[in-house]
Amino acid sequence: MTKGNINVSVENIFPLIKKFLYSDHEIFLRELISNATDATLKLKHLSNIGEAKSELGNIEIEVKVDKENKKIHLIDHGVGMTSEEVEKYINQVAFSGAEEFLEIYKDTAKDSGIIGHFGLGFYSAFMVAKEVEILTKSFKEDSTAVRWVCDGSPEFTLEDYPEKTTRGTEIILHIADDSTEFLEDYRIEELLTKYNKFMPVPIKFGTKTETLPLPEDAADDAKAETVEVDNIINNPNPAWTKNPSELSDEDYKNFYHELYPTQFEEPLFNIHLNVDYPFNLTGILFFPKLANNLNIEKDKIQLYQNQVYVTDEVKGIVPDFLMLLRGVIDSPDIPLNVSRSYLQADGAVKKISSYITKKVGDKMVSLFNEDRAGYEKKWNDIKIVIEYGMISEDKFYEKSDKFALYPTTDGKYFLWDELIEKIKDSHTDKNGRTVLLYATDADAQDSYIQKAKEKGYEVLLLDSPITPHLIQKLETSKDNISFARVDADHLNKLIEKDEPTISKLNDEDKERLKIEVEKNLENNTYVVQVEDLDSSDAPFLITQPEFMRRMKDMQATGGGGGMFGMGNMPEMYNLVINSNSSLADKILHLEDADKQKTLVQQAFNLAKLSQNLLKGKDLTAFIESSYSNLSS
Ligand SMILES: Nc1ncnc2c1ncn2[C@@H]1O[C@H](COP(=O)(O)OP(=O)(O)OP(=O)(O)O)[C@@H](O)[C@H]1O
Question: TM segments (predicted)?
Fold first, then answer.
């Protein structure tokens, strides 16, 4: 038997490990299973190339909880270790790994931004165990099994252990009194499902009862037989490790539900990621139904490293606009044992992020080209991701003319160039600028939309929360276009043509009309304007100037308008009086002051009502007075 001292430069590393990683004790299981998996895969490889002579046999990894004796056993049938290898890998390599880890995390361990806490390896066992035993037998011919024991102090013992005759390693954790939660089956099963659900080697945890199918000629009251089978907690061949040509739509959907068992909705479509240069990355991203919901916290993209779950905090690796997607990304190249701020500056990570962006763009182009009608149907659910990508990633934006859709209130969908082609004659104003009219709420802005349509204009329906940012971006990058919401002004002003306007009133009357209206609207904050509209247009019209409203909207969804300090300004509205309406005429010529007041207020309220601006007490009073008018 060898007794020895692990070469320690930190006085006693184990209490430190425990302290630093207090909140993350559970990762011990992931670390030990990763080692067991590595050892098994190594053996498989050696066996494939003819280096390992013995039969491969059973390669399952087994986890056993012995609650009574407060032990957890992890058994693998991998390469195992010789006595020299234990000396080298456990006493020296593993230890230096643990030491290095502490060096890195000394100051940052409490920083929740650390991704994954990888790299601690074997010594993480001491986060939960007061003593750790390794029983191991190398695959090499004629090697004797050995037993290594360490109680968490820098001292260890290493001795021959001929009792172990099978190849591989068994780690026995003597669980510490403050970690007995890990002696509960449900807790271990929970951890195995969280971290090891897609590990490449089958992992057995206990057994489960399976019901056998009844034979076809079974009697009606026949009872199905049951058998006890190994409870394998993982799927060693998850969909993302396969070639896309092997997978059907059904397979992708099944994988989606395997990944998110509580998710009942089907994903809209998926994107299979697969790259091996200049970095390695595989994965599948799913587009869920999102509509206008920006805040989806549940069921996020999961990050794996060689099929080991690491985290679902993928900020920095996945571009922000794709954080709303679901799925998995697996890459051995992501530096997992560093803090997030480092991650964001890391070149490999940046490349991964732009690769994913490119892939998503390419997928959109092909989805659109292959099945335009189907793509249009999905637009409402994917637009938020696409539009967010357009405003946040220049590369994505550059490509977006090939797949970004601009729907109209009539349910037609245009690509940018198609849209401009369609509207350029009618929507171009006297200065040669093409004005795109849009609505953000088809119901609330209905009266304005109808007016625009009567004049033969197309009205876009841009109703996602980031619309103001998107149109800002389009206006600055496309030539000679501008956007205006249908209610930003009356149409003659929104798209000014070189046509003379005809007014029934002379300038003096118009000025008088303005004064009469203002006089009858006490405490009114609206700016009154008299304009020469068509006689068939509404007599009173409320408009909300585009610029101010857009800045305020932008600030509401973050950034933009705040720059100009407009976020906190009150809403600004104009009240447009149609000089050519018969009501204008009537107001001007009514002798009775009370009647004139009622008329003006009633018309003003109707205009407010059509903008959804009549609320509370004003609405109640309006309804009451309307009823009394009916009966008078
Ligand atoms: N179950 C096992 N079977 C065979 N060898 C093992 C086993 N567990 C650990 N080892 C050996 O001990 C070494 C150190 O393990 P440790 O987990 O500390 O670090 P690592 O696996 O090299 O890296 P990581 O820090 O990413 O886990 C391994 O590289 C391996 O050679």
Answer: none
Residue 219: the pLDDT is 80
The answer to whether the CB of 79 is under 6 A from ligand 1 is: yes
**pLDDT at site 18:** 61
Q: Is 35 in the pocket of ligand 1 (CB under 6 A)?
A: yes
**ipTM higher than 0.90?**
yes
Residue 147 assigned ligand-binding role: no
Closest C-alpha to ligand 1, atom 7: 35
Ligand 1 within 6 A of 161 CB? no
Same domain (yes/no): 93, 138: yes
> Is 226 annotated to bind ligand?
no
- 479 in the same domain as 532: no
User: Which residues lie below 8 Å from residue 208, measured CB to CB, with a gap of 6+?
Assistant: 228, 229, 230, 231
Do both 482 and 452 map to the same domain? yes
Query: What domain count does the chain have?
Result: 4
336: Cβ below 6 Å to ligand 1?
no
Planar angle of CA 234, 239, 243, nearest 5 degrees = 140
Residue ranges of the chain whose pLDDT lies below 70: 5-23, 93-120, 290-297, 334-347, 523, 558-569
Question: Do the domain assignments include residue 295?
Answer: yes
**Cα 39 to averaged position of ligand 1 atoms, centre (Å):** 8
CATH number at residue 587: 1.20.120.790
Read off φ and ψ for residue 494, nearest 5 degrees.
Answer: -65, -45
CATH number of 113's domain: 3.30.565.10
Mutate to test the pocket of ligand 1, among 35, 147, 308 (most ligand atoms within 8 A of CB): 35
> Ligand 1 within 6 A of 122 CB?
yes
Residue nearest to atom 28 of ligand 1 (CA): 89
pTM value surpassing 0.80: no
pLDDT at 545: 87
Confirm or deny that 31 is annotated as ligand binding.
Answer: yes
Q: What is the pLDDT of residue 408?
A: 97
Final residue before a domain boundary, out of 163, 183, 206: 206
Side-chain half-sphere CA neighbours of 289 within 13 A: 6
Pick the residue whose CA is nearest to atom 25 on ligand 1. Answer: 119
* Residue 436 structural domain: 405-494
Q: What is residue 563's predicted lDDT score, i.e. its pLDDT?
A: 47
Q: Considering only CA atoms, which residue is closest to atom 4 of ligand 1?
A: 80
Same structural domain for residues 166 and 199?
Answer: yes
The reply to whether 76 sits in an annotated binding site is yes
Q: Is the C-beta atom of 119 inside 6 A of ligand 1? A: yes
Let me know whether 183 and 324 are in one domain.
no
Rounded Cα distance, 100 and 204, in Å: 32
**CB of 416 sitting under 6 A from ligand 1:** no
CA 27, CA 281: separation in Å to the nearest integer? 23
* Residue 155 included in any domain: yes
Instruction: Give the model's pLDDT for residue 96.
Output: 63
Question: Does ligand 1 lie within 6 Å of residue 283's CB atom?
Answer: no
Cis peptide before 500, with omega less than 30 degrees from 0?
no
Q: What is the pLDDT of residue 12?
A: 58
Beta carbons within 8 Å of 393's beta carbon, 6+ residues apart: 319, 321, 357
